[in-house]
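User: Assemble these into one structure.

Assistant: Restating your components, then the assembled model:
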Amino acid sequence: MQSWHFSEMAYPPAWDAGYENGSFRVTLPNKLAEPDKVADIYHRHFDEFQLCDELGINIMLNEHHSTATCLNAAIPLTLAILARITKNARLLSLGTPIANRLDPVRVAEEMAMVDVISRGRLEMGLVKGAPYEIAPANSNPARMMDRFWEAHDLILKALSTQDGPFNWEGEYFHYRQVNIWPRPWQQPHPPVWITGLSPHSGQMIAERGHVAAALLSGGIAAGMFDAYRKRAAELGRAATPDRFAYCALVGLGHDEAEGRRRADRICGYVRTAPIVAEPFSNPPGYAPVPANVAVLKAGPQKFVARVQTHDGRTIDPTQATVQEFIDARTAFAGTPDQVFEQIKQFNREVGGLGHLIIMGQGGTLGYEDTVDNLRLFAEEVMPRLGEIEMPENPYGEMAERVAANAAE
Amino acid sequence: MAIATGKRRVSGVEIEIRSGGEGRPLLFLHGGLGFLKHETFLEALAVGHRVIAPAHPGFEASEWPRDFRSVADIAYLYLDLAETLKLEDAVLVGSSFGGWLALEMLVRTTAGFGHTVLVNSLGVKFGDRGTRDIADIHAMAKADADKLLFHDPATAAFDATRMSDAELTAIARNREALVFYGWKPYMHNPSLRRWLHRVELPTLVAWGGADGFVAPDYGRKLAQALPDARFTAIEGAGHYPAVEAPEELALLIRDFAAGRNADAAA
């Protein structure tokens, strides 16, 4: 099981204003972002990521826009810095919101540069993007997934074509002379990751053989991973654990109370992230028609993503306690032994994970605590992850049968 | 007059069409609400007219082919429909998004039509780049958008628990399709203004006077930009007079088409 550390680079000095504004995103004026404080936050997180590099933890970044919950607005910029200031860590971008960045060839160029600068350490995540990312990008919320898959196909073709320009006249994107320089270090292109929630996403990702990642979604991940394994088997491939990734908040301490205190600070991220003004939380067309029919039937209510605990309780992430987040598998917290057991348990529940992404910093967790949290993870938890037994792939036999039939 | 709902293939696209009444043909193009709460209006319009009211591709229960991506595609579809139905001297009425569609048709050709009525129409850009003509309802809570859209926001209310899945599906499809066709540029075609001189038909620009989404002043500018248009305000109605003043709007349209309200308020 590979380990990754992730931080959204939050900006807590504007949180009071965010609560007052009723939205941490889109409408919160940027006069609240003091450049000197923001600079300190960026530098601090780069220090933490360099520590990860020393500790053997890989690094994940993401991007969000117009928000006090995430200062990383341009993933290729921060990736480029990390490509230069780290030596060994693999660098996961999870990811580029390619249905909102309407120049896929430029995305391919950026990713190729990062891959080359890092000498082949890039893992390239491509994501749909959250509903509240529509407004800052002013991208069309309808037919978003069609646009996503066309951008995906074009980016992979741009990265893997080496013999001169090609032409692209698609439904959404048009280019004449696609011939990116440099080409990526990794051939034919850096490994691809895609985030998702639903079994349908699992099937789509399986068809392409990419890594399927679930972020903070708890047991819902099991359905997507199962659909992935089944679809892969139908295509004659036994999906291995390295195709599955999960991201959880992780708070570790020298005793349980310290671990939970740190987790509580990190949970500030999940408590603020869903606070979004109504019109940006579900723009028309973003969700499929049947999902919007269900919303209409549910009647007027605040459209906040709810989280299910493993025993079926629904929690409100803007208010939840650390225990509730642990119950929802959104967080793993406590002593290294306790966290190890929680990871082991979750790994069993979802059928086997090849990648554990920890949000080892989030919300208001300070630098000293973060450093200790990361050290405890690297020294006390990470070395034991290899002991975790991977459940058997229930579709293994199907995969063999299909592959054998195809070979005949 | 009773209105019936049926389906018809037009240029390979299966379109849901509401129709009823007899007399001079009248093609009604709906706005973003689809046909929600439009029953009274369509029935009143069908007194003296053969009303033909198609649901646009992607709206209501009409098919949405993947290659229908712009308002121009819908305009050509309805020009085909007008030809298929052999419309002559018909009245073309467009409300809101449907007004934009009507303009896109008429700048291409006015063949088949004798009069046009644009009701709180979208589609044209008048302000400078920093000034929005059309309020960004996708950036406000539904309750706030309803205050702009309706004279009496209670008019907009519907009880989803008493509606069928088909009716709720139509609402969700209408919202999605409106967004798709009108996201960027927002609810207008930057080039359309240049071609308005081609709409050489007697035109009535009718406007719900309480419209906070597209203000009556926009309607006055539209009337001035068209070759043969005049402006009429409808008090007590917002962006959708077909919903808030159905009888009054229908009467206004029938009278205008018959040449009876030459003294409409300017």
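The mean pLDDT of chain B is 96.
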